[in-house]
Amino acid sequence: MDTIALMLSLANVGAHAEVLVMDLVSGILTAAVAERIGGFGSVCTVYCTDKPSPLDIVGLLNLTPSMAGRVFRVSVWELTSLLERHGYVRENHELVHLKKESEGDTAVSGDGNGNLNVEIEAINFDRANKPLNDNHTDTHLQSDLDACTSFIQASAENSESCESTHRNDEKEREAQESMVARSKESNSVHYGRKPDPEDLSRWAKHGFTGLLVSASDYQPWSVIEKLLPFLSPSAAFAIHHRYLQPLAECMHELQRNRMAVALEIVEPWLREYQVLPSRTHPCMQMNATGGYILTGIKISSP
């Protein structure tokens, strides 16, 4: 952790900083930068493989949406092509509004009561126009008509109750789904999205204010040669590597090409001390070094 704190300090990471990060340590460096800027500024994590590097540790920090929304991920090739275009102009994206034509999509819903009224009226109409021969037939017809009417009304009531229950169930289910969706959205951290055109334009015109690299699988010079042009003049950078020799070679190339000043290789090591009365001394049994850091300040090309 002392290595991360030292890198953040050397790269001048703070609020309103635009930090370029190459993180191959599961996102711990990106998470530290996102927490340090506090939602003011941006963190752009680059990768040079087919798939983005994992940033699992960023999701474990329980960042606020404003903080997590400032973490971007983009490939090195996209940034390189952006720099090659040099005169980068943001494209005007036309918004296509989809209009819903309600005239042709009007749904026709049948009314159960209306249908029942039609049926009942039809029966009454037939009964009114049909001559009755005797009282016995009239009684049977009346009883059949009453039974049919009561059956239809009961069916309509059952249908209405079923429809009402179905509508209530649908509303309750939709409410539960929306509640779950809101809960997931509030609890999940949306980070690592693609940068917006405005962000790309700003980075292309003004550059990043800092660079942090922790990629021991690559040669530091091959990384810094690609990423250093994206920094603005006087921007600080810090490169971590587990071995000293690759950083020494990178430092030599930076000096030879006059790309940076104030170059220095430091060894971050926080040593534990035993503090007791008359027995205060460094602990003799400790782990070895946690690597080395190359730091410097970018200068404009002569």
From TrEMBL:
Q: Where is the composition biased (Basic and acidic residues)?
A: 163-196
- One Pfam family for this entry, by name? Gcd10p
Q: Does the keyword Cell wall biogenesis/degradation apply?
A: no
**Leader peptide range in chain numbering:** 1-17
Spell out the residue ranges making up region: Disordered. 158-196
The keyword Signal is annotated on this UniProt entry: yes
Q: Which GO terms describe its biological process?
A: tRNA methylation
Superkingdom per UniProt? Eukaryota
Write the record's keywords in alphabetical order, separated by commas: Nucleus, Signal, tRNA processing
Can you say where in the cell this protein is located? Nucleus
Cite a GO CC annotation.
tRNA (m1A) methyltransferase complex
The family note in this entry says: Belongs to the TRM6/GCD10 family.
- This protein is called what? tRNA (adenine(58)-N(1))-methyltransferase non-catalytic subunit TRM6
Which species expresses this protein natively?
Ceratopteris richardii (Triangle waterfern)
Give the lineage.
Eukaryota, Viridiplantae, Streptophyta, Embryophyta, Tracheophyta
